[in-house]
Amino acid sequence: MLAVRQLEAGYGESVILRNVTLEVQRGEVVCLLGRNGVGKTTLMKSIMGVLKARKGHVTYSGADLTKRAPGERARRGIGYVPQGREIFPQLTVFENLLLGLEATPGKGRIIPESAIMKFPVLPTMYGRNGGDLSGGQQQQLAFARALASEPALLLLDEPCEGIQPSIVDDIRDVIRSIKAEGGTAILLAEQSLEFVKSVGDYFYILEKGSIAWEGGLEALDDEVIRRYLTV
């Protein structure tokens, strides 16, 4: 479904990603690991088109999206939950969710029940401004906003960062339910090793902007963790 090939990207004169290659197949949860500052968020932004690739290719469902704008990538079925959530604080919860429909013209103001059922607390907050929600509630809102377009590929950048354990558990349950449904691929960047091991099918580890290791859960042993992930 998603194929990244020899991707290079960065900011200004700085090169952050070098020759990054990875794949995500339909129904899989693929996890992106690495210490702080190795390029996980840069890779997510590059896949979504927020950051332009300098070299390499991003292919999705057989189409080369490397030079396509973020809006077109969204319309083709890629949903994105960025690090830091990036909800609109002055808009209501309902209005924030409606923005998720911008990627699917023709749906009008009908938010799919499949997105709301995964976060049942949100309809009780429709009239509240996004900025009045707790960090965990904002994360749920950002996740549901991405699901509103019913994406076939979901990019999740640090969804557990800075939120309370109960909502981390909720997000874990949502990822597992999406995985069980089998129609959506997920690329998950996350610091919590316990969390990714509980949901992931395949793992890539970034080090200094390049893929240093990849493998399944059984291969993600103590030696790999010590070498690439222990601070």
From TrEMBL:
Gene3D superfamilies: P-loop containing nucleotide triphosphate hydrolases
Superkingdom of source: Bacteria
Domain ABC transporter: 2-231
Family designation: Belongs to the ABC transporter superfamily.
UniProt-recorded name of the protein: High-affinity branched-chain amino acid transport ATP-binding protein LivF
Keywords, in A-Z order: Amino-acid transport, ATP-binding, Nucleotide-binding, Transport
GO molecular function terms noted in the UniProt entry: ATP binding
Pfam families: ABC_tran
Transmembrane segments: none
